[in-house]
Write a structure and sequence with these properties.
The strands form two sheets. A three-stranded antiparallel β-sheet has the order 3-5-4. A two-stranded antiparallel ribbon has the order 1-2. The chain has nine helices and five strands. The protein has helices at residues 2-21, 42-48, 59-65, 71-83, 88-95, 101-115, 139-142, 144-151, 155-170; strands at 24-27, 35-38, 86-87, 119-125, 133-138. With 173 residues, the chain is α+β, with helices and mostly antiparallel strands. 57% of the residues lie in helices and 13% in strands. The protein is globular and about 45 Å long.
Length: 173
């Protein structure tokens, strides 16, 4: 077990180093599990996002008005937009959350923003009792070149590219 835990620890350290380098998007881009997304792939996924209204700073307000963004996600995004990279601990504090049902709504809001590629984890913070939590920032602030590239893509073009890329990865499945 010793070598397994050492290797697990090393993999965890690599994940944190890549996350903190901001050389890839890290978040729940395709569902409920966190994943790394290469920055050359990110524009295509952003162009396909249901929450992509063009990559403008006020898009979240349109999403909220259209019923595509929950109130909790809107509040989380507003704190991040105002403060920049913010840990989950500080987000909870700024939103006045103390657990219970609020905790579930908070986690759902964070996941919602990540699936829409509006935010991503960009750092590790040590401001909770476990001394480990993610800090999130807006993708608009962190990846402006990739979002600008996404603006030039049509959904159909982005989907075709992603499908070709995926099939190239899996080969003759």
């Amino acid at each position: 077990w010793g070598s397994h835990s050492r290797l697990y620890g090393r993999a965890w350290e690599w994940k944190d180093a890549i996350l903190c380098s901001r050389s890839m998007y890290y978040g729940k881009a395709l569902g409920d599990y966190r994943m790394f997304v290469s920055l050359w792939v990110f524009p295509y996924l952003f162009a396909l996002s249901e929450m992509n209204y063009g990559g403008d700073k006020d898009d979240y307000l349109e999403l909220y008005a259209d019923g595509k963004l929950s109130l909790m996600a809107k509040h989380i995004y507003e704190v991040i937009a105002e403060r920049g990279p913010t840990s989950t601990t500080m987000l909870r504090r700024r939103l006045g959350l103390d657990g219970g049902m609020d905790s579930r709504r908070f986690e759902h809001g964070l996941a919602e923003l990540q699936r829409g590629l509006l935010i991503g984890a960009v750092d590790i913070a040590r401001d909770n009792r476990w001394k480990y939590t993610f800090a999130y920032d807006s993708t608009l602030r962190q990846y402006p070149a990739q979002i600008e590239r996404a603006r030039t893509l049509r959904r159909r073009e982005a989907m075709a590219w992603v499908l070709r890329w995926y099939l190239g990865l899996v080969g003759q499945a």
